[in-house]
Design brief:
With about 200 residues, the protein is of the alpha+beta class. It has four helices and eleven strands. A hairpin with a 2-residue loop joins strand 9 and strand 10. The longest helix is centred in the C-terminal third of the chain and has 18 residues.
Length: about 200
């Protein structure tokens, strides 16, 4: 019987089980050996992860063919204007390649997310804003490259949803098993996306 966990990865915690430099890892938070990450988050990113021993589902969730949306709340330097949003929506150059288009919107107010263990340090006198970005691909540090490319470096990055799975009330370092309804919704989303791609 496979197991599926939702985990809120805290800031400055490594994916994986060990680190030669002694930095905190997932294994110190989730006492469930045999599970692995269905999609990673950078050391300095936070938010929702799915941990499982179901290799087939993990592959489908992370493979570009299935195009599962991942939703992020991103605090950036400055206040992005419509031109910056249009660029993010159409794709921006990232390491010589055009990023995939993202859904992008500016949040009218600061989102209700837990305080970070290390406060965000914005340059003195520079305002900050929050974006909601939805991507269907996940190249390494892509969001940070994308926001920098439009003139708004990322200060904080929190993943709040993976497909139909949402962070909900989880706090940094907390985890829980998926409910049967959540697992069914995820399986349905993966089948539906594959069916559309095969048309």
């Amino acid at each position: 019987m496979s197991r599926y966990l939702l985990f809120y990865k805290p800031y400055r915690v490594l994916c994986g089980s060990t680190d030669e430099q002694g930095r905190p890892t997932l294994a110190q938070y989730v006492p469930a050996p045999g599970l692995f990450e269905a999609g990673r988050l950078d050391y300095d990113s936070e938010g929702l992860m799915l941990l499982t021993d179901d290799g087939g589902l993990a592959h489908r969730l992370t493979h570009p063919l299935y195009r599962q949306p991942k939703t992020y709340l991103v605090q950036v330097q400055g206040l992005p204007d419509e031109a910056a949003l249009r660029a993010l929506r159409s794709g921006v150059p990232v390491k010589g390649e055009l990023s995939a288009p993202a859904q992008a919107e500016v949040l009218a107010e600061e989102p209700d997310v837990p305080a970070r263990s290390v406060p965000v340090q914005a340059p003195a006198g520079v305002p900050t804003g929050w974006l909601r970005l939805v991507l269907r691909e996940g190249r390494k540090r892509e969001i940070r490259h994308m926001t920098a490319a439009v003139g708004h470096p990322t200060l904080r990055l929190v993943r709040v949803a993976i497909g139909p799975l949402a962070l909900g009330d989880l706090q940094p370092g907390q985890w829980r098993d998926l409910t049967p309804a959540e697992l069914a919704a995820l399986q349905k989303a993966l089948k539906g996306e594959r069916a559309q791609r095969n048309r």
